[in-house]
């Protein structure tokens, strides 16, 4: 059975960088997908679907459920390794429930853990506005992305806590420290 790890965290929490490094250190067994990167790839392809996606990303809003679910389900089913890390999912109650329904009716993939990278809003703001790498990195969009992240967070935490799969990690340290802790946690579960 393949093992799935989800990483959630505020914009600027470092979740994509952390997961990238862990996958890079373990190319024999771990593959990583960033939900945001998968969606941006679709935008870059210039497809009709990409144009729709762009309208949501550029405002910091969530891309519609059906698009996001099919994006990550495709990535999971094509994953070439036995351990899959996806960051940036779920970002809503409906995404969480949709994945739960999909996982319930199959036996190929097991959700092992949901890792929440915790950073304060101040640290997240400094990191995002400091790095400003794209059109969605300005103050208004940041504020919207932050509130979109925080709105369902308590319910997402309690759902995964009840399922005994929630793991929190302090994201306000150096990348090396965070990656070391996250990597040893992942490895202890595979
Ligand atoms: P990220 O790179 O994770 O910060 O994501 C960038 C943008 O991609 C977000 O602001 C959303 O517009 C979109 N996005 C990423 N993940 C999701 C998701 N799980 N559901 C809906 N939209 C998403």
Automatic annotation (TrEMBL):
Chain positions recorded as ATP binding sites: 12-17, 131, 173
Residues bound to AMP: 35, 40, 61-63, 88-91, 95, 145
Chemical reaction(s) catalysed: AMP + ATP = 2 ADP
One BP annotation, GO: AMP salvage
Coiled coil region boundaries: none
EC class of the enzyme, as a word: transferase
Pathway annotation: Purine metabolism; AMP biosynthesis via salvage pathway; AMP from ADP: step 1/1
One Pfam family named in its UniProt record: ADK
Alphabetical UniProt keywords: ATP-binding, Cytoplasm, Kinase, Nucleotide biosynthesis, Nucleotide-binding, Transferase
A GO cellular component entry from the record: cytoplasm
Record GO terms (molecular function): AMP kinase activity; ATP binding
Stretches the record annotates as NMP: 34-63
Protein location: Cytoplasm
Oligomer and partners: Monomer.
UniProt similarity note: Belongs to the adenylate kinase family.
Function: Catalyzes the reversible transfer of the terminal phosphate group between ATP and AMP. Plays an important role in cellular energy homeostasis and in adenine nucleotide metabolism.
Name this protein carries in UniProt: Adenylate kinase
Organism expressing this protein natively: Helicobacter japonicus
Gene designation: adk
């Amino acid at each position: 059975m393949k093992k799935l790890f989800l990483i959630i965290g505020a914009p600027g929490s470092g979740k994509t960088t952390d997961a990238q490094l862990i996958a890079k250190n373990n190319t024999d067994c771990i593959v990583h997908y960033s939900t945001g990167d998968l969606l941006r790839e679709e935008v870059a392809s210039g497809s009709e679907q990409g144009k729709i996606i762009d309208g949501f990303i550029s405002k910091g809003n969530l891309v519609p459920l059906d698009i996001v679910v099919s994006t990550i389900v495709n990535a999971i089913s094509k994953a070439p390794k036995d351990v899959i890390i996806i960051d940036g999912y779920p970002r809503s109650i409906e995404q969480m429930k949709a994945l739960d329904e999909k996982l319930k009716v199959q036996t190929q993939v097991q959700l092992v853990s949901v890792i929440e990278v915790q950073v304060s809003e101040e640290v997240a703001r400094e990191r995002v506005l400091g790095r400003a790498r794209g059109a969605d990195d300005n103050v208004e969009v940041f504020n919207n992305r932050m509130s979109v992240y925080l709105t369902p967070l308590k319910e997402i935490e309690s759902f995964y806590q009840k399922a005994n799969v929630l793991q929190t990690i302090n994201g306000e340290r150096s990348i090396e420290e965070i990656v070391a802790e996250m990597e040893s946690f992942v490895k202890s579960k595979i």
